[in-house]
Amino acid sequence: MNTSQFRGALPLMSVCLFLLLLSGCQREVTIDLDKGFSSQIQQIVPQPIIDSLRKKGMVINEGLIPPQLAGIYLAQNYKLLSPYGPEDSYKLGKVINPYYYRFYGQNAANDITYDFTNNGSDKGNGQGAFVSGNGTKFTIFSQDVGVSSSIPYKTLAVVSGELTTKGIKNFQYAFVMKEKTGDNNNNTLIPVGKSRIWIDEDGLAETTTYFPQAIKPKPQSARLSAEGDAPTMSSAN
For residue 91, is it within any domain? Predict the structure, then answer.
């Protein structure tokens, strides 16, 4: 091939090389929607916390295509799956009052709002909450704020289960205490930095139409973003 022929072939060679590189790049950016967590979840939940909760028995469902959650669910015979440590006054298997959970406002970005209460001493809201999951299985990661036995608190909460026509199957609720006002001797709520995991004893948080009127649905404009001032979760006592 003489010099003029080589120069004439250069544009064609450049196009072929560009197409090969483009094809390779397209293969590299393939996203598996069944695995992993959204960027919002990664911002509010450190991987060591996820790993720790999993070791304690918490089922955490990954994925970017969770089911649509809306409605009220009742977790009865709420049983302790994992105490925060050997010094915890609540032992494995302890049963506490039922809890009501109301989910609403899930959008295309999979952020969601929920309220919770035991219709007694504990009530609060999930703020800056995001959903992961795949198919009918989901996990909510939330920064919750609540009041239990007159003590304001903030937690990092994790709610997991599988959506069915009768309710949420394999319902689990975990939380890590982040802040609390008062209770410096830890006589009422668990210590800051500690966690508990609760489960519905019969494995189903049933659908219900009743929710205690002590908590009204939270206006969508009042939600906190993942970067906002972060509160925490229920079953804190």
Answer: yes
